[in-house]
Amino acid sequence: MAELKLSNVEKAYGEVKVLRDINLDIKSGELIVFVGPSGCGKSTLLRMVAGLERITGGDFTIDGVRMNDVPPSERGIAMVFQSYALYPHMTVRENMSFALKLAKKPQSEINAAVERAARILQLTPYLERLPKALSGGQRQRVAIGRAIVRDPKVYLFDEPLSNLDAALRVATRIEVAQLKEAMPNSTMIYVTHDQVEAMTLATRIVVLAGGGVAQVGTPLELYERPENEFVAQFIGSPSMNLLPGEIVETGAQTRIKLDNGGEALASIPTKASDKGLKVNLGVRPEDLVPTEGLGLFSGEVEFTEALGEVTLLYFKKVGESAGMVAKFPGIHRDLRHKAVTLTADPSKIHLFSNGRSLLYR
Amino acid sequence: MHPAFQAILTIVIGVGGCIGYFYFSNLFLDKVLFPARGENAGRNINRANMIRPWLFLLPAMIALGLYLTYPVFATLKLSLFDKSGENFVGLGNYAQMMTEAKFWEAMRSNALWLVVVPALSTAFGLLAAQLTDRIWWGNIAKSLIFMPMAISFVGASVIWKLIYDTRPTGQAQIGLLNHIWMQFDGGWGSVLLLRVLPAVLLAGFAALMGWLAWLLIRALMADRAGGFWLRIGRLAGAAISALIGLVAVIWAFGAATANLPYGAPQQWLTIPFWNNFFLMAVLIWIQTGFAMVILSAALRGVPEDTIEAAILDGANAFQIFFKIKVPQIMGTIVVVWTTITIVVLKVFDIVRAMTNGQWGTQVLANYMYDKLFTASDWGVGSASAMVIMLLVTPILVWNVYNARKEMR
Questions:
Q1: CATH number of B99-178+267-407
Q2: What confidence score (pLDDT) does residue A1 get?
Q3: What pLDDT, on a 0 to 100 scale, did the predictor assign at position B223?
Q4: Is the ipTM of this complex over 0.90?
Q5: Which residues does B203 contact at the CB level (< 8 Å), separation at least 6?
Q6: Which chain A residues are Cβ-neighbours of B319 within 8 angstroms?
C-alpha cells in the first residue's frame, strides 16, 4: 500500500543526462511496467526508485515522504533482480530470512514469514537447499520469496523472466500475475523489454524512449490510442505501418491522400485549417483488409510467413518507404508474388503530424 | 669466465635446449616414427597425437622424479641409518631427536609461526584488497604492497636486520625500530602508547574472545537438537576462545604493568619469545602482497547484484563484507591460507639469515640444515626432513583439493 510520485526526476552522469523530466504518479495497488528499447534508461529508473542509483534532480516520494536521500533499506521496497542475485552460500531459508535477521526480528516471526512465503511459492520442500541445487524457475521463485517475506510497500522487478527459457517464462509470468492478484494492495514496478509481459501484466505501462517518458497508459490505451509514432511502432508486433500523405478533406472524418496514390478515410475529427497538412498515416498490420477498389496501398507480396492462425504478408518496398506488412487471418501462402490492394476501417486509422498523434492535440 | 656471462650462457643453453628438444622430438615423431603419408596416414596421425602429450610431459616427469620423488625415498632410507648412512638404526634417529630440547624448541616456534603468519598475512591481505578496491590510487597502493614478493627471503631478511639493528648507547641508532624506541622517555606519551594502548587493544581482544565463547555456549544451550559433533565442536570452540581470551587478559595486565627499559637501545632479535614475532614480521611483510593480489581478484569476482541485494536487505558495509563477500570467497581464502601455511612450514632463509636459530628462534627447516650440514648427521637431519614432510603433506592435500574445487 503505497503511492509513488516522481516529479521532474532526472539522472545525469557528469554532463550526460540519461533521464530527464520523468513525471509519474503511481497509485496504490498498481502494477506499473516500464518498457522501452535497450538503453532507454528503464532499469536505471527502477534502480533510482530502489536507491541503488542516486537521483540527480527532481523529487521522488513514497506516501508523501521524500525518498531521494533515504537509504534503500529504509524505503520499504524489495527488488527481484534479473540474475536472481541469490546469496550462493546461504540456503533458501537463509536467503529469505537475511533481511529480517538484519532487522533483528524475533526468530519465531522470521520462521513464520519464511514459511508463509515458501507455501505461496511452493518452495517448502527446498528450504534447506543451496541455490545451486535449484532450477532456474525455482531460483526465480526464491528471489520473489525473498521480496515477499519483507512485506514491502513496493515490489520492484528488474526483467525477472529474461533468464528463463520460453516455456518457463510463460508459466512464471502467470505466477507473477497470480501473485499480484493475491496481494491486491501491493504496488509493483516491473521492468521488461518484452511486450507480451508488459501487455499482460500491467495495469499501466510507461513507455520510455530517449531518456524521457513517451506515453503512460493502460495496455489498451497504448495499443488503440498511441500518443506518438514511437509508441505506435513500439507496441504491437509486427509494428504499425506508417504511410506519408496529406489531408484533403476535414470535418468529423478526415480524408487523406497518400503519396503512393492511395486514399484513406479516418474517423478522426480535424479542423478546416488542417487541410493540406502533411501527415503520416498509421495502420496496424492486423487492421488491413483486402479490397477491390481504391485502397490505401497496393503492391506485390514479396514474402509470406504462415504462423498458423495468421499469415504475415511482406510487401515489396516502393521507393524509400519502409516495407508494408499485413496480417491476414488464416493461411494465405498463395498470395506470394500476387498484387494485393489493402484498406482499413476508418476507426482503425491513426494520424501523426510531426510524430505526434492528431488525437492528442 | 665472468659470472654474468656464465649466467647468460646458461640461460641460452637451457632455453635453446628446451626449444630444440620440443622441436626435434616432434619432428621425429611426425616425420620418421609416424609419418602422415602413405596408406596409414590417418592411423599414424592419431598415434602421433596419442604420443605427443608424453613428449611434453617427459622432461618435467624426469626432473620431478629425479629431484623430488627419488629424494623422498632416499631421505626416508637415510633417516633410518646412522650418522654416516652406513648402519641401520631403525627409528633411533627419531628417538634421539625427540630427546633434544632444540628439536622441541623448533617444533614450538614452528607451531607459533603456523598460527600467526598465515592468519595475519591473510587478514592483512584481505584488508588491503578490500580497502584498495574503490580508491583511485588503489592500484599504486597494491603495487607497493605487492613489491616485497619480488624480494628474496634473504634480501628481505637483510632489510629487516637493518630495521632491528642496534648500536651502543650514545651512538646514533641506524635501526628504525631502535630509533623510534629511543624517542620514548617514560613520559605520559610513552605510557599512553606503550602501556595504555596495548593494554586496551589486548583487553578488547579478550572481550571479543569472551563474547565469542559466550555466543558458542548460548548456541549450545539453545540448539539442543544439534548433532553430537556440532555440540562437541561448539564446546571446543568455546573452550579455545575462553583460553585465548584468558591469555589476552594476562598479557593486557602484563602490558599495563611492564617495567620498560626506556632510553636503552634494545637488541630486538635476542629478546626471548618476542624475537620470534620480529622474524615473523618479515614473512608477513612478504606474504601480505601475495594474499592481497589473490583475494583482490576473488573479491572482484563476487557478483555485484548479490551486494546490491544485500544493500536492499539492509546490510551495512561491515555486514556486506563479512556476511556476503567473505563467505563467497571462502574457498579462495582457504587456498591462500594453506598456501602460506606451507611456505611457513618450510621457512628457513629468514631464520638462517637473521638469528640462525639462536635465542630461542630455531625452526624445523633450520634445525634440519644444522643437523645435515653443520653437524654432518645425515640420520637425524633426514629424520627431521621427514617430520617436516609429514607436517606439510596434509595441508598440501587440502590445499590442492580446495584449489581444484575453486577452479571448477
A1: 1.10.3720.10
A2: 63
A3: 63
A4: no
A5: B248, B249, B252
A6: 102
